[in-house]
Amino acid sequence: MLSAAIDYARSNYPRFLDELKDLIRIPSVSTLPEHKSDVLAAAQWLGRELTRIGMDHVEVITTPGHPLVYADWLHAPGKPTCLCYGHYDVQPPDPLDEWHSPPFEPTERNGNLYARGAVDDKGQMYMQVKALEALFAANKGKLPINIRVILEGEEEVGGEQIARFIREHSDLLKSDFALVCDTEMFAPELPTLCIGLRGLIYTEIEARGAKSDLHSGMYGGAAPNPFVALAQIIAQLKDGSGRLLIPGFYDAVRRPSDDELRAWQHLPFEEEHFRLTEVGSSRLTGEPGYSVLERTWARPTLDVHGMPGGFTGAGAKTVIPAKAIAKISMRLVPDQTPQQAFAQYKSYVESIRPDGIELDVRLIHSGDPIVVGTDNPYIQAATRALKKVWGKDTVFIRSGGSIPIVGDFERHLKIPSVLMGFGLPDDQIHAPNEKFHIANFYRGIESIIEFMNEVAV
Amino acid sequence: MLSAAIDYARSNYPRFLDELKDLIRIPSVSTLPEHKSDVLAAAQWLGRELTRIGMDHVEVITTPGHPLVYADWLHAPGKPTCLCYGHYDVQPPDPLDEWHSPPFEPTERNGNLYARGAVDDKGQMYMQVKALEALFAANKGKLPINIRVILEGEEEVGGEQIARFIREHSDLLKSDFALVCDTEMFAPELPTLCIGLRGLIYTEIEARGAKSDLHSGMYGGAAPNPFVALAQIIAQLKDGSGRLLIPGFYDAVRRPSDDELRAWQHLPFEEEHFRLTEVGSSRLTGEPGYSVLERTWARPTLDVHGMPGGFTGAGAKTVIPAKAIAKISMRLVPDQTPQQAFAQYKSYVESIRPDGIELDVRLIHSGDPIVVGTDNPYIQAATRALKKVWGKDTVFIRSGGSIPIVGDFERHLKIPSVLMGFGLPDDQIHAPNEKFHIANFYRGIESIIEFMNEVAV
Lengths: 457, 457
Hints:
Two copies of one chain form a homodimer. By secondary structure, chain A is an alpha+beta fold. The first copy, chain A, folds into two domains: 2-197 and 369-456, Aminopeptidase (3-Layer(aba) Sandwich); 199-263 and 286-367, Alpha-Beta Plaits, CATH 3.30.70.360. Helices cover 36% and strands 22% of the residues of chain A. Chain A is built from 13 helices and 18 strands. In chain A, α11 packs across α13 (438-456). The longest helix of chain A has 23 residues, at 2-24. Chains A and B meet through β10, α5, α6, α8 and α9 of A and β10, α6, α7, α9 and α10 of B.
């Protein structure tokens, strides 16, 4: 059965890729209200596809936000149940003028598929669907293990609906482990399992000064300026070296084990190559005394994403804006919690409020940091599957990104997650010219097929 | 003749106001390329009107930017020549949702005319046109003095075209003094001449970090963040008390005379009333040890107007933007010069450049600070005219705003400017719900009529 499923997949790859392109063409940008119907269309497209390949109980579940897509196939008694997770929403494509081909017109170049969502997460989510199709086709309409599928449309905006669904319907999702395909390989050709994720608090600080916009000639020197106030606050959140200045923020940070730190030193990582090819800045920044991998995987960080307000057009407008906003997020690591981190941040920001300014410090969304043990049996089955497809031992890494759903699976379903991802470090996720290496799409499908079979043994 | 012109004006006020409304309805926003044809339309409208009232040599002068409108009437031998200046371009109306009536649909409420440009500067500019019409009508097609009119469409974006025209064609504008109606009265019913203006340098700092936008999960802790860098820079430009930290910036600042400072103390100004009714913030800010009038009229200041870049939409996008911009201006006072101030600022900003960030510090536009003496004969003629119309002695103030044209008149035409303005402190220029007190529009016309006659004596 094993090779039959892989044979089926291989003989259908061109069609699989065409189908993925159709899904990508639906601009399901979850954060923009004008794309609400596109997000729904992507959900319905996936519902039809899950029905077509042979899943039972396919349902597009409406919610107060974007819909969830559920399906199951539970006819393998005595076998484990896998909860396949993915998300079909994408980040906004802006800035549009930096794309070499339109973000929602998937384009093949140099063996890659370029488009918003190509790898994050439509392409990686669709690997699971196609692996299931191949297993059904090769096994006369049966699967080697029990499968539940849950797909969400709000991953890029905090995943509120799926989090609520898991909290309220944990019985409906009862499984033994989850398979999450939304991470990346450490390097090309290096099979990778991600066993740790940073958490997140995404916040806004709104600063208000004058009651309305004022002329900076008439009032400059007397009226408080909300942008100057936000700049003063931000400059006090993080020092010049990159260390956060929020009191108590580092107290709960757990240092990775010596074994884990030693293993990271043997990963094929060259700081100068990373700087030149991935970041491209004149130098890297961050806390002194920590390696780049530690800084991005195992240390909390703070970034400012945008500062809406005032005049942002071309040319000059001499306005003192009545208000301005800073969109600021912090990455968290075990054992920090979003609740405590936000409380520390809010309290500190309010304590350094500049004169004449009122502040509103709000939490937009959050996610828990997590770490999974390498001795977990599903992690071990995954390493065997990856060895078969890629011919190499798996490396265990962490990710600096946040997948809040993994924390929800752990907390509410009491199950571990296998984070098996096939993105590459230069895939430009969330940025212009996002891509997915097409060979990884294919081998990802094969890896999932092998994984399901390993779990069934 | 004097009372005949005033009589004519009074019997034509409703028509004058209707004409002004027509001019205001043309959305001549000079900074927005999509309004280029509206700016031209406003120029052509004014050209037709100047021809209709009896001016000679009316010309809409095309330039590489927005047009100039020129007219003259030079048939009063032995009499002085007045150069009437105004601008027909306006600031952008945003934020639109804070207007109580549409910005380009002039609306009368409580004796005021609400619209973008009502007072800055269409209404005040049009007072001059209507004063000339009344003088022509009352004097059989003649004026009491020689008049040149020059109107520009780029005042709100730096006035590059008129500055170049004055530089290159100073012979065509040869005059004895300029009349500029673009300032405000210190208080309602208090005739005011503005004898000092702050200068300006309007700049942008562009900060660049990574070569493209990056995911803050993957790269947070290693990639430089341009917004954090700009915040660190801004926090080092001005301390918490409002004092600028640019080395040498205060060296050229000339303290107002003791007489001038004493006179300011007798102006009807209450700091708490100003705070509550005009600014509306929880407290005023600015350099310790200086009064509000000193801080806004006679001290340099720095404001941030907007910080374009990154993600500014609703919701969350976890991006480390490749670049961000801060739009920052500084007001200058005698004897600072824009050239030196910008050089000091640029050099200081570059000296505090955060690690991993490249900076581009650019000057968008600038204007000289100026002070005019109260013993000037045209200033004295103006005070006599204002006494007749308003029944009160004139107060001499400065303005914190910048009218670069006044510096150009001084430098290239070697003439002083009479800044006779009839705006009010709560007119909300450059902000939503800009207004012009309609009675001031009428009495402004009468003041200009009397002024022309006083100059002719």
